[in-house]
Design a protein that fits this description.
alpha/beta; six-stranded parallel sheet; three-stranded antiparallel sheet; binds 2'-O-acetyl adenosine-5-diphosphoribose
Length: about 250
């Protein structure tokens, strides 16, 4: 069957037209149609190989950094050649249409930034940025370098072991980004909170949606599968990010 354009419910369209501020929250599902595998669910990286989770912990980084970097290299190899899809571009378009905007993403693939999103809280950091565990020097690896990685890279300055500037399992979230989340999403929730392509397993992803709902903001979820948030949001739209988010963006403002 040819893909018919999804139609949004009329009351949702009406509400979207009044929106002047928006917060978007994304997870791996927003990049699925760019060919980047998700972590969980069908074809998910953790389903395929559960030991990846252990490799991506702070504990493994300290005891066996080569193993952590092999897993990071693996993530990069799975995302190799990926470019933003219609959902990433539509989220950047929402930012241009409203007076106040914030994007909270768990993704480390950089595709939102490549699509033109500007006010991004990349709460899990980036796998292309590095920090030396000995001297603290910060650096950047090219996508090609990252895709070729099979062992921990070394600091050009002091020879120490580098770590990815990403949050690994069991590690704290960066304080400054948590403060931005508090300010931009929780203190005065945007008129629209749109959550796309995340299994919403972490409390800091669920909370902004609960807070927005309690404050009677417009809350919308896009996901082909229901999540813990689906019964909570005002509108659960069952379907893919690339099909539905452009429709939402079109109606805003
Ligand atoms: P998950 O892999 O847990 O969940 C992906 C979600 O995307 C699921 O709910 C899918 O149903 C949905 N999905 C799949 N295809 C989709 C599509 N085409 N359009 C929309 N949604 C789609 O990914 P996250 O929720 O991002 O952490 O996982 C959270 C964190 O767990 C990740 O950031 C990562 C991982 O460990 C770190 O790397 C620190």
């Amino acid at each position: 069957m040819a893909d018919a354009k999804p139609t949004l419910p009329a009351p949702l369209v009406e509400a979207l037209r009044r929106v002047r501020s928006a917060g978007v929250i994304t997870g791996a599902g927003v990049s699925a149609e760019s060919g980047v595998p998700t972590y969980r669910g069908k074809g998910g990286l953790y389903e395929e190989d559960e030991s990846r989770i252990e490799a991506l912990t702070g504990t493994t980084l300290r005891s066996d950094p080569d193993r952590t970097w092999r897993a990071v290299g693996d993530l990069a190899r799975h995302a190799a050649g990926a470019v933003p899809n219609a959902a990433h571009f539509a989220i950047a378009e929402i930012e241009r249409k409203v007076a106040r905007f914030v994007l909270l993403t768990q993704n480390v693939d950089g595709l939102h930034q490549a699509a033109g999103s500007r006010n991004v809280i990349d709460i899990h950091g980036s796998i292309t940025r590095t920090r030396c565990m000995a001297c603290g020097a910060e650096g950047e690896l090219s996508r090609e370098e990252l895709e070729a990685i099979h062992a921990a890279p070394r600091c050009a300055g002091c020879g120490g072991t580098l770590r990815p500037a990403a949050v690994l399992f069991g590690e704290m979230l960066p304080v400054e980004k948590v403060a931005r989340m508090q300010r931009e999403l929780l203190d005065d929730p945007p008129e629209l909170v749109l959550v796309v392509g995340t299994s919403a397993l972490f409390p800091y992803i669920v909370e902004p949606v609960l807070v927005a709902r309690r404050a009677r903001r417009l809350t919308v979820e896009v996901n082909p599968e229901p999540t813990v948030l689906s019964p909570v949001v005002g509108w659960f739209l069952e379907g893919s990010a690339a099909a539905l988010v452009p429709e939402i963006a079109r109606e805003i403002g």
